[in-house]
Amino acid sequence: MLKRLFTIVLLLLASASLTWLPITLVKAASATLLINAVYYDTYLPGEPDEAIRLINVSAAPIALSNYTLTDFEAVITLTGVISPDQSIWIARQAHDFYLEFGFNPDYEYQADTDATVPDLARTGSLALANSGDQVALYDPTATLIDAVVYGTASTTGTDWSGPTVTPYTQGFFGSEGQILYRKLAQTTGRPVPDTDTTADWAQTTDDNINGKKVQYPGWDLDRYFFTHQVTQTATITYVVAPDAIYEVVAGYISRATQSIFYEGYTFDNADLADTLGATLQANPGMTVTLMLEGAPVGGIGDQEKRNCQVIETAGGQCWFMINDSTANPVIHDRYAYQHAKFMVIDHKYLLTGSENLNYSSMPADDKSDGTSGNRGVWLITDSPDLVAYALDIFAHDVDPINHRDLTRWNAADPQYGTPTSGFVPNYSSGGTTYTTTFTTPFSASGDFFFEVVQSPDNALRSTDSLLGLVSRAGSGDTVLVEQLYEYKYWGPTSSNPTDDPNPRLEAYISAARRGASVYLLLDSVFDDPGDLRGNTATCAYVNSLALSEALNLSCLLGNPTGTGIHNKMVLVKAGGQGWVHTGSINGSENSSKQNRELAVQVKNTAAYDYLAGAFWHDWQLVGGEVFNKSVFLPIIIK
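Above: the chain sequence. Below: its structure as tokens.
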């Protein structure tokens, strides 16, 4: 109560120009200005980058003069004008905010650290407690407009109802650096109606689709909240790994003359590195820029360092997205993993899918006697719109001027530089255990509907994206899923499908309940049978539901091509229309919510038929059968 009275006094002092101030302890009935985000437990020591974001949800500009923000220990007096739907960041120190977010805030309030950022007047020292605090917004008449209470703080005097907002930390997600932000409506991208409860916030745990979300500095959620959808005249090509993918990708690289931009996870294919280097040297003035994950599982090996060395020596650039706890100030990477795999060649072609530039994905052996590798798929398209969109993502991800989590290959760097002295690259790949079947890629030209899906921005939308695609399937339709893994449930390993469902898996099950025939083929090579939510557990769960509910639903584990299923492919045939989803997104919560991932959905029945042929080939190769052969005949394309 003393804290509250102190704040009222500060509000009076901050608005001394007013002759009389009614002190209203109940929030105004119709809020036009909302606290939209709170960044409190920050990455930097001493937390000079703390920040609060406001948004104008009204239809008119709002003059902010004499509006105030408070944590009930200090008061910040606002100024300026905020337009309809505009958001503004108010940071403790602009310089430190920029270090983490990659752009300047609109205002700073603790110190003048950047002459280009306006300073706000304050009374007292506003510092947001990591354990919990209150943030309140008052209008010029000292009427409470909005408030948010997080952590262990009391809700008294804030008009807040029920539990406070807390960071979403189930599973793989850390509280440090997490931005509390308002839940956004899928149709508009605007905050959901304000109720002064935790249900308004994206971290709420009572919403499996729009809630249980995280956000960290450096993300571009405002830019990429919606999936990118376009209908355009183009050519599409689907190439299947390991059958023909190396030859196709190497061919596109070798024919490049202007530029190659690539985001990937790992890169151990020495043949492709040599091709990149030779192409770069053969085309003076050509640009080649790669960005890879700086801390992949197992670390960065000499082969990858050598491949980057080849590209750098030829005049290209090889970047890594990194963490560095020894840096001053410390560096945190924007995404848990840079796991997307996409390449743009000559500003004309987009190549993207499930496979890395690795020998396990793209074996370079003579395949006349067979090969061995991962099952996966890449899409190649000359859609100008998709090419431009992919380049936009690349430009925002690979932006070392504004993001400190990028380091370039350097000969003197022991972690990201020259390989071990005397290292000899390994060119061995492939094998003879798998007879190549899909050596001729599928190609078609015409008008196509495309939808680009990416994590962490929009992979879990139910109105479109993957979940929206699967929701199209009903009675008499088909859903085919070939995936590296699809967790039985999300959240902590101690959870279950009821408390923390995997929305992707539950979407497939729901399609079966609507009458669709649904088949899941999951990898057996990397599966841990003891993992309570791994592929073995997932298939047991799915098949038990199929048995108990008499569903046309089946799940198998397998290894059809030698080194495992690395695919992330979902095929939907709904109302006779085929849809294809291919990309890099796995079936874990982290893949959808915290990694950088990319997938493309295409509406085309012929492409569906071709890739369904690959699915049925693999399904039958590992011992699967088809429930209704009179309707769902497997298509084998040789």
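The two ends are 77 Å apart (CA to CA).
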